[in-house]
Design a protein that fits this description.
Elements (H helix, E strand, L loop, with lengths): L17 H8 L2 E6 L4 E3 L7 E7 L2 E5 L7 E6 L4 E2 L13 E4 L3 E7 H10 L1 H30 L10
Antiparallel strand pairs: 1-8, 2-7, 3-6, 3-8, 4-5, 4-7
């Protein structure tokens, strides 16, 4: 079903005016993923993205000789995939469905074309995706501090 979604996440694209929001949602279609399904692979072409409606998905990182390491769990309202917005349009991480997932799927090329035609929309989408990236970087930093801060990187100061 194309363009059936009514929202773009819980505040994800809140700053987008209603008419532009409607145009963007017109490019979406509802999709579902069964539990355990690989949604995309690290290093593959990033040609679409999703806003989760329900369920949970894990972002993971390829670890040579081991199974992929989960780096973040996404839930309803979250953006799944940002690599589609920046050349060379290749996934930086992989993703899989932890539960059954329902999502709005967007064709990346169509969204980039719409954003190029409408600079106000383009800026709003870029800022929204940038905010997601910033949040994920801070979350990764916190996880790294949780893992390594007790050991420090040298003798105690003070």
């Amino acid at each position: 079903m194309t363009g059936s979604g009514t929202t773009l996440g819980s505040g994800l694209f809140r700053a987008i005016p209603a008419d532009k929001h409607k145009a963007l949602m017109g490019l979406s279609r509802e999709v579902g993923f069964a539990r355990g399904v690989r949604i995309f692979e690290e290093g593959a072409r990033a040609d679409r993205f999703w806003v989760l409606r329900s369920g949970r998905a894990a972002l993971d990182l390829h670890v040579p000789g081991r199974r992929a390491a989960d780096v973040e769990v996404l839930e309803a309202g979250d953006l799944l995939g940002w690599s589609w917005l920046f050349p060379p349009y290749v996934w930086h991480l992989g993703a899989r469905a932890l539960t059954e997932v329902a999502a709005d799927e967007f064709d990346a090329e169509a969204v980039r074309a719409l954003c190029a035609k409408d600079p106000e929309l383009g800026q709003a989408v870029t800022l929204a995706v940038g905010a997601v990236i910033g949040h994920r970087l801070m979350a990764a930093r916190t996880r790294l501090l949780d893992l390594y801060a007790p050991y420090g990187s040298g003798p105690p100061r003070g």
